[in-house]
Design goal:
With 191 residues, the protein is of the alpha+beta class. The chain is globular.
């Protein structure tokens, strides 16, 4: 199967555009205590239908090492006390921040939360150095998505002000890796 990968970026905080307000109140909060269990839950619950499998074999220690690095943050959207999605930020170089994971749990898709969460996460990418004194101020925020991701992903990134700077076909590692474990393939209200 052919898979297209799009690489997107913002080079100024002025590029960022807000999403519409969500239909129901959602609070976006930083998970400031590194928790491999919680992060693995978010990763598999959000990525279960989109072939996110790369991190599933990670040990608890590998998760902890990843989450404990300076400039790595997880921001979680909560709706009525329930996690609805997350954004993971990683400082990747001087003045550079990557959105390494972004998405919603199946029940939250289609409720207007995606634009709200992406805006909140990208805003936190732009002010990451304010929370990490060892980092330089952010000059670039980047992300990639592929045709295996949710059908609204690319449009959401563009609507938030991200610009495509590269597009590739069949990048190694982006191929369909088969059935993913969860939370349950096909979970949620989508048809």
């Amino acid at each position: 199967m052919d898979v297209t990968t799009w690489y997107l970026e913002q080079t100024s905080p002025d590029d960022l555009r807000p999403g519409r307000p969500p239909a129901e109140p959602a609070e976006v909060v930083r998970a400031s205590v590194p928790s491999p269990e919680f992060s693995r839950f978010l990763y598999s619950a959000v990525g279960g239908d989109w072939q996110w499998t790369t991190r599933l074999p990670w040990t608890w220690r590998e998760w902890m090492d990843w989450l404990g690095r300076a400039g790595t943050e997880t921001w979680v959207a909560w709706v009525r006390g329930t996690p609805a999605g997350f954004v993971e930020l990683v400082a990747t170089g001087p003045g550079e921040v990557e959105i390494t994971c972004f998405g919603l749990l199946p029940y939250a898709i289609g409720r207007g939360l995606g634009g709200h969460l992406l805006h909140a996460g990208a805003s936190r990418a732009w002010d990451l150095a304010e929370r990490w004194s060892s980092l330089e101020p952010t000059r670039r925020v980047h992300v990639h998505t592929c045709s295996l991701d949710g059908p609204a992903a690319l449009a959401n990134y563009r609507a938030r002000g991200f610009r495509v700077y590269d597009e590739r076909l069949n990048v190694p590692g982006d191929e369909d890796e088969g059935t993913t474990p969860g939370p349950w393939p096909g979970a949620g209200p989508r048809a």
